[in-house]
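Possible regression after last week's pipeline update?

I re-ran a chain I had predicted before the update to compare outputs. Posting the input and the new output here so someone can diff against the archived version. Not blocking, just want to make sure nothing changed silently.
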Amino acid sequence: MREEKRKKRYPDAAKPAAFVKKKIMAKDEFHFLLKMQQIRYARNGNVFSLLLFTTRDNSRKEIRKFTDIVKARMRNTDAIGWFDKHSFGVLLHAADSDGASYFAVDIIKKVYENLPSPPYTIFTYPNQWYGGEE
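New output (post-update):
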């Protein structure tokens, strides 16, 4: 009964998370989002984390597999984008460094199992931030 009411109310939404398309943002778009998140912090005080994965030694196929798994694991409030030429970032809304570390380890287990994983760095705003534009 409840499902039928939701379908009438939101006919285009098969399931709540199904209609949210997560794309990998371009570098400029991602850096803009980071600045906006800092402004939100000033207003509401919610910490957030930036998780950076370095992809320098990985093939395009490995990067796509890795980012697909990250996108599947992300919440709707999180975002993924290129941070610089060799790194992509995951913006984890309302996540401290422990939450970001848990997310990173979970992703690496799913992708690499016993293989060497790409290096990653965690920055948490405002206490452990990367310090500016890249």
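Follow-up from reviewer: compared with the archived run. The two ends are 51 Å apart (CA to CA). Marking as no regression found.
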